[in-house]
Sequence to fold (529 residues):
Amino acid sequence: MTLSEPPPEPTRTDRLLAAVGGLLAAYVSLAVADVAAFWVRPEASPVPAVGGAVVDRTPAAVKEWAIREFGESDKAVLQLGILILLGLLAVGIGLLALRRRLLGSAMVGAFGVLGALAAVTRPDSDSALDAVPSLVGAVVGALLLYGLIGLLFARRSRAGSGGARADRRSFLVVAASAGLAATGAAAVARAIGSPVEENAAASRAALRLPRPASPAPAVPAGAQLRVPGISPFVTPNRDFYRVDTALVVPRVDADRWRLRVHGSGVREELTLTLPELMTRRIVERDITLACVSNEVGGPYVGNARWLGVSLADLLREAGVRPPSAGGPADQLVARSVDGMTIGTPVEQVMDGRDALLAFGMNGEPLPFTHGFPVRMLVPGLYGYVSACKWIASIELTTFAAYDAYWVPRGWAAQAPVKTQSRIDTPRSFARPAAGTVMIAGVAWAQHRGIRRVEVRIDDGPWQEARLAAEDSSDTWRQWLYPWAAPPGRHTLTVRATDGTGATQPEERTGTMPDGAQGWHSVVVTVEEG
Fold:
């Protein structure tokens, strides 16, 4: 073959190796970017950055479907989907590079630029350094692909000679070495730990919770029923539901955390550190928190003992008045460190309920997944309009002037919790033995309380269940109905009446725009004893 002759057409082996080269270049690019993100901040890694942009632009109906189908694994499924898509694109780029080497390598760089743009345009980004991980990974990936395809070009130009086998070996050696090096570097980085995450973990470990000036009353002895399968009255932190948009859980250093209170009607803007917040009057309360994405009978509700300070007291200190007292702001917009915005009615925050800025949960500092170092809670409102995690600022404004994150996506601007009840045991499709079967579960109507729970067997009359002792109107309440169960297939239904006397409506509705409602039912088959 002379220099003027074009290289032969790619063989099947050439195409296979080019596809492998594209995949490897993408993998190495992401691994290097992850290593770089350990030294910048984990959220700047390209997959979380691009994933966050995807989440922000995903229609609300699709998000609801993902939560319904995958539960708290929805974020892992999203990231897996992104990786699969990137893998397919990487194969295509590798095949393109086999014919147009420079263009294929440049496309790896272009994806890095997109990742960098996604990182620096995230709401939580406050530094151009967030672009560094994606850019560094893109450069390494592009150079690697360019070099690997160069080895294939050499092999093609020497096709039929012993040199072809040598070039193939060189390709495999370079590819394996690059993959192992990237994997090793990522493993070492994870073993060492991100300085950002290490500092945050150390600050949480060092935090000592103060004693409350206003402790929560002792939980009544009868609040927890001794029924196997019923939800515990206090939800352990490890079991408490998590629904948010953060693909990487923010790890906030409590020593560097600040809370800013500002906006319309604020007489004196406040900026508080965590120690300053903890010098105020400490309040401890049992509060049940519910997600608006919780379907009838769903799991996204939990009860915990929270420790913090009164949000209403803090607002009064800043000169804020509720609208009923002539205040100009009717909406409180809480902003998280990850850029999430949550809008809460000022009137409800300041009407006497135990709205908190919480830093403790069930006797320990907030877990990172639940908002460490500080989160907001307002009893009686769904979490998406009241329970900002990783809170960084509070702005007083109006609903007319500003739409928080979820409102343009089809959710209601204001959303009080609806009365709900759930059968925990027996579960649907259970096969209990004939005889006495304990039907039990929980009911909640935060800030109104539960007055009555009733159970219906098939199409029979409603029978009143026994209520467990009430802790407060802001917590859920357990209930129990002993059923003399005859053999056969049966439908069990529950409904609750809240403290105002209003009973759950029968008709089921979806979660959008302001929460699901309807009676929960399960179907069981009672077997002969």
Summary: Confidence is low (pLDDT under 50) at residues 1-6.
